Structure prediction request, 438 residues.
Amino acid sequence: MREYDIVIVGAGAAGLAAAIFSAEAAQKKNASPAIVVLDSARKVGAKILVSGGGRCNVTHDDVSPEDFNGPRNIVRNILAAFNEQATVRWFESLRVPLKREDTGKLFPVSDSARTVLHALLRRCEELGVAILTEHRVVDVAPLISPHAGLLPQGGERFSAYARDEIFTVRWEGGALPARRVILATGGRSLPKTGSDGSGWEIVRRLGHAVTTTVPALVPLVLQEAMFHAELSGISVTVEFSTFVNGKVIDRRTGSLLWTHFGVSGPVVMDASRHWTLARVNGQEVKIQCNFFPGRSFEEVGKWLIMAAVARPRGTVNNLLAEHLPERLVRALLQKAGVEPGVQLGQLTREQRRFLTHAFTSFVLPVERDRGWNFAEVTAGGVPLQEIDYRTMESRKVPGLYLIGEMLDCDGRIGGFNFQWAWATGYLAGRACAKSTAP
Ligand SMILES: Cc1cc2nc3c(=O)[nH]c(=O)nc-3n(C[C@H](O)[C@H](O)[C@H](O)COP(=O)(O)OP(=O)(O)OC[C@H]3O[C@@H](n4cnc5c(N)ncnc54)[C@H](O)[C@@H]3O)c2cc1C
Prediction:
């Protein structure tokens, strides 16, 4: 049975980054630890390949803790250790130059996610990191731990090292002894890529907590009776508010895309975690759209009055269609019970109220989220308080490191989740290399 200094479970973005950074850090000290990455999938990197619509949005040119859901101070410290400029330089060193798009998102110049995956795998190979596919890990057991205090059979092999934690990493076909274990098993988004949440079972057995996990960055399915299907393909800028138990907990402005099943687009995806979390927690949750972002009910009401004075014979439909796609205007007018051809000067006070209501505080009848197969990321995971943010080492099990999406931190759309994977991989990789150095 081969012994490894560092076993990394999961060859996704975080695991591959950790492998590269640990091997590079060791190389700088003229050490050559045995590093292996185990992954359950037959082919690694499936999620990287589908990311960013096949182009892989590697990072963003302006990353801050506010782009993430997670404890600010811890997230800040982790991001500061390996920031977006470090990511750009790192990818350059991997011969993957990045380009910035108007939105601030950074993509490989090649516009191909394959370039990113190939570069990561090539670097692993150059550094002598082994990647074993179809190795589904089922358990990680510390053989010497402060809790157990037991010396395992064969454990004395490692006694020359400064720290003496030893683990047995069990996969479906066998077991490997390891001095350090980095868990990078991801969350549950897109399970067909291999991320099925099994890493959480492993860490739970090791004494870690795992918060409620729900799909995030996920489209929302609306009740069938809604008009979304007729508007499929139309994008509008909206102010999107999530109310939980009657209180606004999230408000953001951005692009909403109507689809055949409901709503998608960046503003919906970014806000979806609040809906999914509230729903699973049994809270009353409501989503409201303002199709005149930044303008209140009163302001839009006044605007309608002024418009009626300025052009009393103009129709409601024509006025609103100057600002919003006509198909959407017609659908909202129908919901408000106002005929499109009504002249502005003839609108009754009540009609104006219904209309203003429909355009500034339209309640989306959300039935459910679109599920793990369509979620880009997971909300929830291992609380960041349970790891040392300087190294990503577990505070419960010395020698065990937790990185990437399996932690309770999720970013918004725009390259932030990969930045999290690179940064946490960097910290754990370097710390492991340091702590295993002879
Ligand atoms: C469709 C889609 C598009 C996305 N686009 C972007 C984007 O453009 N930019 C961005 O920043 N983020 C994007 N994301 C999110 C980003 O891909 C993830 O946040 C990131 O890949 C998480 O990396 P990770 O290494 O933590 O986990 P993962 O990439 O999920 O990797 C986990 C790995 O662990 C393996 N594994 C799991 N359990 C076990 C086990 N028990 N034993 C062995 N191996 C195991 C899995 O096979 C997998 O290879 C996207 C996500 C999706 C689904």
